[in-house]
Structures are given as structure tokens and as C-alpha cells.
Design a protein that fits this description.
Homodimer. Pfam families: tRNA_m1G_MT. The protein is an alpha/beta fold. Helices cover 32% and strands 15% of the residues. It has two domains: 2-156, 3-Layer(aba) Sandwich (Alpha/beta knot), CATH 3.40.1280; 170-245, Trp Operon Repressor, Chain A (Orthogonal Bundle), CATH 1.10.1270. It has eight helices and seven strands. The strands form two sheets. It has a five-stranded parallel β-sheet. Strand 5, helix 3 (95-102) and strand 6 form a beta-alpha-beta unit. The longest helix is centred in the last third of the chain and has 19 residues, at 208-226. The radius of gyration is 22 Å and the shape is elongated. It binds S-adenosylmethionine. The site of S-adenosylmethionine has 19 residues, from strand 5.
């Protein structure tokens, strides 16, 4: 998979060299290219922003550098990338969207600063490419670089051969399947006792059926406690009789 990121703070994307994403790059599983937007600004101050039409506080990112940057990146590859525009006014970034984007061969991220990018850029590329405006949550950050790090990590761990154990995202919170509407429950490892606290007996029983039931019950309890909205909007058929007894 190829990922391009256009930013005025290329150094903000340094964490893409670390850990899981860094290893995926080193193994050639991910081709990540970070570009400095100012390379496509032509005045002596490399200006990328200007005052908003209609007045008001803050600055808006100018369309010309973004247009030149995106044209040059799009022309540099084969096929058509999906353009991912981080913005608090976008559609929510969910595990479902991470799965969908992980199946695309090429993504171009456009993290902005100031009050965002001149609207015409989104319209221009939206007319000929798949452009997704995406929010990572109901809060406003100073720039889109942190949202890009969040999205790239969520997407990269779904790519075949990136996680050491391909099964490990199967039981995650929000993972598609029988537990799709439930958060993951608590997890434990050795030692069996720590500061006087043991672990649930069922996890030592070796009884796979009972362990699976316990995991589902704990996931259900945690979801009711932390995210009742997930249960409310799920299809009632997703829950069995034992769930409903909790
Ligand atoms: N005035 C904009 C608004 O209220 O929608 C906020 C602009 S914000 C200060 C600057 C940039 O940070 C955005 O254009 C976007 O790239 C990024 N950003 C901030 N919060 C975000 C969020 N929750 N999700 C995705 N991107 C975000």
C-alpha cells in the first residue's frame, strides 16, 4: 500500500518510522511518502495561507499550493488514490472505515492547519477522485497531522503481514463478526497473582466454550457501562438470550 501525506510540518510525521508502521515500511509492506506543502509555494516566504473571504478570525490554506501538490503526487503514481481529508466536520473515522481504507492500494492524506483548506480544493478533486472528509472525534485539534497518525496506525495494523499474529485484531473492540457491537472485555497475563489480585478461575479452566461465554459476558458488561449507545443502535438479533440476562 502506498501512503502520501502533504503537510507543513513533515517532522510531525516522524512517528511513522517507529513500531508497527515503521516495521511495515522497513519490510516494504507500506510505502510512506511525506511531502512538505511549502515546496509548492512560490513566493519568498513560501506562503500557504491567507485571510478568509467574508472576514472572521483565523487564516485559510490557499488552493494553489494544494492543487500543485496533489497534481504532482497523483501524476507520480499509477491508478487513482483515495484522498483522505482530516477535518472535524467530516464523517467519523470508525473501524469499519479503517477496514475499507486498508483495502485500497493508495491513500493521500491532506492534514491542514489554521481554519482548514479552501473549499474549492475538496470540490476540484472530489469531481474526479474518491475524496473522504474524515473526523477522528468530536473535538478540534490544531492540525490534521495527529489525526493522520491515528488513521494510518489503525489502517496499517489491518494489512496482511503487518501484525505478528494476523488473528490478533479479530477479537478487538469494533472488529467485524459476532462481537462487532461489543467492546473487548478485560485481559490478563502471568503471574496468576499480583498484589493479592488473582485472575478469573474460568480463564484457567481450559474449557474453550466457557471461556468464550465469559469473554462475551464481560464484553457485554463493559459495553453497557462505557458505551450504551453501541447496544442501543445494534440490531437486537446480534444479542443472544444470555446477553439479555445481563
Ligand atoms: N475551523 C475548523 C472547524 O471548526 O471545523 C477547525 C480547523 S482545525 C483548527 C485545523 C485542522 O486540524 C483541520 O483542518 C483538520 O485538518 C485538523 N483537525 C482538527 N480537529 C480534527 C478532528 N477532530 N478530526 C480530523 N482532523 C482534525
Amino acid at each position: 500500500m502506498r501512503l502520501d501525506v502533504v503537510t507543513i510540518f513533515p517532522e510531525y510525521l516522524e512517528p511513522l518510522n517507529v513500531s508497527l508502521v515503521g516495521k511495515a515500511r522497513a519490510r516494504g509492506r507500506l510505502d510512506v511518502r511525506v511531502h512538505d506543502l511549502r515546496a509548492w509555494a512560490h513566493d519568498k516566504h513560501n506562503t500557504v495561507d491567507d485571510t478568509p473571504y467574508g472576514g472572521g478570525p483565523g487564516m485559510v490554506m490557499k488552493p494553489e499550493p494544494w492543487g500543485e501538490a496533489l497534481d504532482s503526487i497523483i501524476e507520480s503514481g499509477e491508478g487513482r488514490p483515495v484522498i483522505v481529508v482530516p477535518t472535524p466536520s467530516g464523517r467519523p473515522f470508525t473501524q469499519e472505515l479503517a477496514v475499507e481504507l486498508s483495502e485500497k492500494p493508495w491513500l493521500v492524506f491532506t492534514p491542514a492547519r489554521y481554519e482548514g483548506i479552501d473549499r474549492r480544493v475538496i470540490e476540484e478533486y472530489g469531481d474526479r477522485l474518491d475524496v473522504r472528509e474524515v473526523s477522528i472525534g468530536d473535538y478540534v485539534l490544531a492540525g490534521g497531522e495527529a489525526p493522520v497518525l491515528v488513521m494510518v496506525e489503525a489502517i496499517a495494523r489491518l494489512l496482511p503481514g503487518v501484525l505478528g499474529n494476523a488473528e490478533s485484531h479479530r477479537d478487538d473492540s469494533f472488529a467485524p463478526g459476532a462481537m462487532a457491537d461489543l467492546l473487548e472485555g478485560p485481559v490478563y497475563t502471568k503471574p496468576p497473582e499480583w498484589r493479592g489480585r488473582g485472575i478469573p478461575d474460568v480463564l484457567l479452566s481450559g474449557h474453550h466454550g466457557k471461556i468464550a461465554r465469559w469473554r462475551r459476558d464481560e464484553a457485554f458488561r463493559r459495553t453497557v457501562r462505557n458505551r450504551p449507545d453501541l447496544i442501543e443502535r445494534a440490531d437486537p438479533a446480534a444479542f443472544d438470550k444470555k446477553d439479555r440476562e445481563i
